[in-house]
Design brief:
Layout: E1 6-8, H1 15-26, E2 31-33, E3 40-44, H2 48-58, E4 67-69, H3 85-94, E5 99-104, H4 113-116, E6 121-125, H5 130-139, E7 143-144, H6 159-166, E8 172-174, E9 186-189, E10 195-199, H7 205-212, E11 217-219, E12 243-247, H8 251-258, E13 265-270, E14 283-288, H9 294-309, E15 315-319, H10 328-338
Parallel strand pairs: 1-8, 2-8, 4-6, 5-9, 10-11, 12-15, 13-14, 13-15
Antiparallel strand pairs: 2-3, 3-7, 4-7, 5-6, 9-10
Bound molecules: threonylcarbamoyladenylate (TXA) and magnesium ion (MG).
Magnesium ion binds next to loops.
């Protein structure tokens, strides 16, 4: 069954659009919106029908809770507890921006049960993207929004990605720019101290320790299933159709493997390698100018994986990336994309 998906571009002065979106949210409709991390698939977080529709449209397991997006802190009054000095410091340092915090719920009656998937905690985020903020401010609706992809696909960083996955399944796609950061927000469990990063993102442990002090936060090891705090991390994620191989040998030995291969093999590399690749016939895509440019790598990764999906590639190679505090999110998403779980 297919529904008609409206494509809308936001014009700041067009208040009719915001009235229409507000009405749609009240009716339980789904609206894909841009954010600075990835596009989100939004519904009114207080609406059972809308939030249920999110899981259906994405094919998302119902035990994987959603993040609630908002524009003004007052919107969280009576919903979650912000009564914590360290949380307040995080908020003033990183919001609006790519940080999601998990907090204790104080009133279970407001947010739909579909959003929390039965947990006593709620994940909340104040996005920075201009269009997202306009929609949040002008509709004054709390928006539950996971990434706007089909479950198991890379998160969408461009309008076209959302269209490919969800056209005919959702009510509106807001057409906007490429997502500035390209990887999902840093998710921080603030219900216990020290805090735990349950999903790495562009705000890193070092960034947070600069604000809260050393020892205030640690990376929760998501590879250990007994320690999974964020339910979404246990599912296979971000995966391209082709097998993604993170090559741990030397660059020269990888080039040896690739030099006689054809376009059915992909190679994700950097512009500064170009001169070594002149006679290669593999399908080459550049993640950034160099491996050091982590921001650029983050921004391009999902788009590249999706491009390969459209190009009948069987295997994609990438040289292993050195894991540092800064590259942690990138390495995490690459590992997930390459895992066969
Ligand atoms: O950047 C982002 O965070 C994007 C944009 C749209 O804001 N959203 C996003 O949502 O990535 P989603 O649903 O794809 O990922 C949310 C993650 C999941 O891993 C989920 O399990 C976790 O956050 N999560 C949500 N609520 C939680 C809670 N109460 N406790 C633990 N983990 C939670
Ligand atoms: Mg997601």
């Amino acid at each position: 069954m297919s529904i008609k998906t409206e494509i809308i571009e936001i014009n700041i002065d067009d208040n009719q659009i915001f009235e229409k979106l507000k009405d749609y949210y009240k009716k339980g409709k789904l609206v894909a919106i841009p954010t600075e991390t990835v596009y989100g698939l939004s519904a009114d977080a207080t609406n059972d029908k809308g939030t249920k529709n999110i899981y259906k449209a994405k094919g998302r397991p119902s035990d994987n809770p959603l993040i609630v997006h908002f524009a003004k802190l007052e919107q969280l009054d009576n919903i979650v507890s912000l009564d914590n000095e360290n949380v307040k410091k995080l908020i003033s340092a990183f919001w609006p921006g790519p940080m999601t915090v998990i907090l204790p719920i104080i009133n279970k009656g407001i947010i739909s049960k579909n959003v929390t998937a039965g947990l006593d905690t709620l994940a909340v985020r104040m996005p920075k993207n201009k269009v997202a903020r306009l929609i949040l401010e002008k509709t004054n609706v709390l928006l539950a929004a996971p990434s706007a992809n089909t479950s198991g696909k890379p998160s969408p960083t461009k309008f076209e990605h959302v269209y490919n996955d969800l056209n005919g399944k959702i009510d509106v796609i807001i057409k906007s720019e490429i997502s500035e950061l390209g990887l999902e927000s840093t998710v921080i469990d603030c219900t216990k101290y020290p805090f735990a990063i349950v999903r790495p993102g562009s705000i890193t442990k070092d960034d947070i320790e600069k604000v809260l002090g050393e020892g205030s936060i640690y990376y929760n090891n998501q590879e250990d299933v007994t320690k999974i705090i964020s339910p979404g991390m246990k599912y296979r994620h971000y995966s391209p159709d082709a097998d993604l191989i993170i090559y741990t040998g030397s660059e020269d030995s990888l080039l040896d493997i690739l030099k006689n291969k054809g376009s059915e093999i992909g190679f994700i590399t950097y512009e500064n390698m170009k001169n070594k690749l002149e006679n290669f016939s593999v399908n080459i895509k550049y993640l950034a100018d160099s491996e050091e440019n982590i921001e650029e790598c983050n921004k391009n990764l999902y788009n590249i994986l999706r491009e390969y999906d459209n190009e009948n590639v069987e295997k994609i190679y990438i040289l292993d990336i050195l894991e540092t505090d800064k590259s942690k999110a990138l390495v995490n998403r690459l590992r997930k994309a390459s895992s066969k779980k």
